[in-house]
């Protein structure tokens, strides 16, 4: 583990050779540095080595390193202070939605309660923006949900359609805060949702929700829409338990 005060880090010849040629330096350097943070090479609240040494470690130029650090500071991975060493943040306490999106690319570092925490956050929001959307634009919702009839069995198609359902609901809620929060979860959701929709009963569960929500919109009943959303969010947690088992099984060597 890399601790505060250490100033050298030796790369083995295999890694050094593998890292010589990169097509998108800033993006790849970002992934390498985040991986080193997550695996404890650069521990939380430790300080990164100097610019020259860190650039050599990552296999990039110093200008590329500065670009990478700027991106990571924006999301809450690191804290840059002029004249001082760059600190590795406690990303669970100081990070933003960008951290969540990034973590979805590192399932081996997700804590066991990662998905459950996301679902709890969704449960707090979805019934509210769903009811607001039905109150504001019931016809538009019914028209959009007609697309459910074109869904086959492909988990990816379901994932994209379900995302668009919720994105449409936030837009029609006329509350831009809901839209921005949901947009922050987009990449993460589209990476994880196909695992959920691999479960046949989960696909059927969502189809029933789209149907019932369309009926609530047709009646112009926001309270019924809120109840439906709350119910489906809670029931989806049961299916996600199966997803979690699948995801974390992949961690095993």
From TrEMBL:
GO MF term set: DNA binding; DNA-binding transcription factor activity; fatty-acyl-CoA binding
Gene Ontology terms: biological process: regulation of fatty acid metabolic process
Residue span(s) of domain HTH gntR-type: 23-91
Keyword annotations from UniProtKB, A to Z: DNA-binding, Transcription, Transcription regulation
Pfam families linked: FadR_C (PF07840), GntR (PF00392)
CDD domains membership: WHTH_GntR
InterPro entries named among the record's database cross-references: FadR_C, TF_FadR/GntR_C, Tscrpt_reg_HTH_GntR, WH-like_DNA-bd_sf, WH_DNA-bd_sf
Protein name: HTH gntR-type domain-containing protein
Species, as recorded: Candidatus Brevifilum fermentans
